[in-house]
Specification:
mainly beta, Thrombin, subunit H, 1 helix, 44% strand
Length: 109
């Protein structure tokens, strides 16, 4: 059996993987597939400058390009599905990473 010993700076670096703080907040959103194959109203489970975690009933795949739209201002950001998480009945957690960081997308919330 091999024992792996990590010093404290390495452990801290492993814990701090996020590039910006994540905020738990329910924000109404519309997630659209490029080409119109997907359009679903949902809300953010958590968000940060780099993306958002949502629950979708629609089937998506890792790597799929989507648009995240604010239904009030119609501002949208392109992103891609980076992970699929837990199921909540008919919905599944979907992590979307924006193509470009978008701290301004969450303003006025």
């Amino acid at each position: 059996m091999t024992t792996l010993i990590l010093d404290e700076p390495v452990i801290t670096k492993l814990r701090e993987r996020r590039r910006s703080p994540r905020t738990s907040m329910c924000v109404d959103l519309i997630v659209c597939g490029v080409g119109g194959a997907l359009r679903e109203r949902t809300c953010a489970l958590s968000l940060n400058d780099q993306g958002v975690l949502v629950a979708l009933a629609s089937k998506v795949e890792i790597g799929q390009t989507v648009l995240v739209r604010d239904p009030e201002s119609f501002v949208e950001r392109e992103g891609r599905v980076v992970s699929l998480g837990r199921d909540y009945g008919r919905r599944r957690e979907v992590a979307i990473e924006f193509t470009e960081p978008a701290p301004d997308f969450w303003l006025d919330r």
